[in-house]
Amino acid sequence: GTQVTDAGMAHLVTMSHLERLSLNNTGVTDSGLQTLSTRDSLTHLDLQDLKISEAGCRSLSEIENLVELRLNGCPIGDKSVEVLSRLENLELLNLNRTRVSDAGLATLHGHKSLKIIYVETTAASAEAVAKLVTALPGCRVVSGTSIGLPDPGASSR
After folding, report:
1. 29 lies in a domain?
2. DSSP code for 150
3. Which residue, 145, 107, 98, 140, is CA-closest to 126?
4. Hey, which of 64, 72, 82, 154 would disulfide with 96, CB 3.0 to 4.6 Å?
5. Which residues pair with 117 in a beta bridge?
């Protein structure tokens, strides 16, 4: 990882046109993510393996234009996913290697814009993954055992 820390995050606030940011494997925590909550220009965020919690996810949920969010390897759970489900423009969500369980996946059932969700190596059951596939017919759900593909006939029903 790089040496980016919470203190260094303050410099990002001055970058008003920042669209893509990768902070994977850095020392950034919930505190550092607060500086991103005002970055409406951000559309793609990679936070793989950061030590963040629900508080950090609350900050992320304020980035209205976020389209892609990679949280694989973050120690987040169901409450974090519930908070993130408010991101109306989110199309890709990577939850691989998180603590998300059946309850967390259920909070995504009504999401309108999701096109792909990764849920490999989580606490979610195969049944919960299957329910998510059914609840989001236009979304590809990638799990450890199967890939739920969008139903091509779903839009005509």
Report:
1. yes
2. P
3. 145
4. 72
5. 93, 141
What is the distance between the alpha carbons of residues 16 and 29, in angstroms, rounded to a whole number?
21
The side-by-side arrangement of strands in the sheet containing 140-142 is: 20-22, 44-46, 68-70, 92-94, 116-118, 140-142, 147-148
C-alpha 7/C-alpha 28 separation (Å) is 9
Model's pTM, two decimal places?
Answer: 0.90
Cα distance between residue 149 and residue 2, in whole Å: 36
With 0-12 / 13-18 / 19 or more C-beta atoms within 10 angstroms meaning exposed / middle / buried, residue 39 is buried
Containing structural domain, residue 76:
6-88+96-103+116-136
SS3 61: coil
pLDDT in tens, 93-152: 999 999 999 999 999 999 999 999 999 999 999 999 999 999 999 999 999 765 555 544
Specify if 149 maps to a domain: no
